[in-house]
Amino acid sequence: MDIRLPNLGEGADSGVVVNILVKEGDSLQKDQPILELETEKAVGTIPTPSAGTVQSIRVKVGDKISVGQPILTLAGVGAAVPAAPAKPVIPAAGTAATTTAPHIPGLPVAASPTLRRVARDLGIDLSRVRGTEAGGRIGMADLRAYIQQLQQLAAAPQAAPAQPAAIERIDFSRWGPVVQKPISALRQTIARRMSESWNAVPRVTQFDEADITALNELRKKHVPAYEAKGARLTLTGFALKAVAALLRKHLHFNASLDDAAGEVVWKEYIHIGIAVDTEHGLMVPVIRDVDKKSLLELSKELELLAAKARDRKLTADEMKGGSFTISNQGGIGGGAFTPIVNKPEIAILGMGRGALKPVVRDGQIVPRLMLPLALSYDHRVIDGGSAARFVVDLVAELENWSDGVME
User: Fold this and answer.
1) Do the bridges between strand 355-361 and strand 324-328 make them parallel or antiparallel, or are there none, so unpaired?
2) Using an 8 Å Cβ cutoff, are 75 and 89 in contact?
3) 76-93: per-residue pLDDT in tens?
4) Mean pLDDT across the chain, nearest whole number?
5) How much is the average pLDDT of 211-236?
6) pLDDT at 364 (0 to 100)
7) Is 3.40.50.2300 the CATH classification of the domain at 2-75?
8) Residue 279 in contact with residue 232, Cβ under 8 Å?
9) Cβ count within 10 A of residue 314
10) Measured between alpha carbons, how far apart are the two ends of the chain, in Å?
11) CATH number of 96-155: 3.90.1170.40, 3.20.20.20, 3.90.180.10, 4.10.320.10?
């Protein structure tokens, strides 16, 4: 019996094999993990649907495999071998069907719910649209290109579709030794999402500084008590509490723009993503219902999700559903920076490293610990005045923290 790569869920139809957990001759139990697969967002294990003995392994580490592709062959199963997925039909050139994607019948088309709705309203079969995003996913640009091609074919049925210009490759080894490594699925996803945000979102960044001298002393005071309860008290925890309070007051910042429907979606929940720097690339796990959790609960969950991100143990669901994002680079160093909005969110807060600076207080120059803040936002939804008020209120929250709000 051939064991094939099962359906990976919405938006994922392929991955890269990063580890094979069995070898030929092994006896397997049903649901035993057989390999680890890296998709666009996480690394997960693939179990065997049946018990049996491994007769042959059909993939190797580093292979990019798609849904329906054989992974290994089991002997002693006693079940009928499933039929192989039907191969895509490539139609003759010069017909409207030249845009047909290599889609396997019976498997879902990789596209967002918004795009599916648009296609349904237009009467377009998405299985005929070629997806150019990671893993063959169909984006809005692909749908537009399909519609434009249909219009061109209707106007000139015999005209062949234009061929894309070839990408020139540069031989860098001409100038010295080089090492070439394939781009990981995660890094490709990061690049695609950042490009989408850069091209689609007219962003502006509002800068300011917060005097966190008192807040840092308060943090140091409570660090031992938090450690005794198995939690690390960090500035990010304070930022989570402060931002959650502000999102209830500044509702525009807890929204998303539905481009297809021409609507602003106001969210009644507050789920905040935390950008985590890992050796594999940037990952953004989401802490849900931040406004309903204590500082202690947030500190524990923050540390747990950050550890899972570094170990590549986050699930896809743990990185979805955010309504705002915080990126704290203070632990690395550096000052203010311009974070890119995590589309489809509306805004993101960047935090740099606090530094002692001479500041005038009551007519005296005194050393104060100043925290650089950078709020990037989507100018289609948020105006500059709203962003300035948000940052002013955030500074006030951080500078006037009460000792009674530590649990």
Assistant:
1) unpaired
2) no
3) 874 433 433 433 333 333
4) 83
5) 95
6) 94
7) no
8) no
9) 24
10) 56
11) 4.10.320.10
pLDDT value of residue 158: 52
Phi, psi of 176 (to 5 degrees): 155, 175
> Which residues are marked as active site?
379
Q: What is the mean pLDDT of residues 163-169?
A: 66
Under DSSP, the state recorded for 320 is S
Looking at the predicted structure, is the pLDDT value of residue 165 above 70?
no
Alpha carbon distance 17, 24 (integer Å): 17
Beta bridge partners of 287: 272
What is the model's pLDDT at position 98?
A: 38
> What contacts 226, CB < 8 A, 6 or more positions away?
232, 233, 296, 299
3-state secondary structure of 102: coil
Q: Hunting for tokens 């953004």 — which residue is that?
A: 284
Alpha-carbon 339 to chain mean position = 15
pTM score above 0.85? no
**CA distances from residue 87 to 67, 111, 171 in whole angstroms, order as listed:** 13, 21, 36
How far apart, in whole angstroms, are the C-alpha atoms of residue 14 and residue 11?
A: 10
CATH topology of domain 203-399: Chloramphenicol Acetyltransferase (3.30.559)
From-to residues of CATH 2.40.50.100 in the chain: 2-75
Q: How many CB atoms lie within 10 A of CB 358?
A: 9
Helix (H), strand (E), coil (C) string for 150-205 = HHHHHHCCCCCCCCCCCCCCCCHHHHCCCCCCCCCHHHHHHHHHHHHHHHHCCEEE
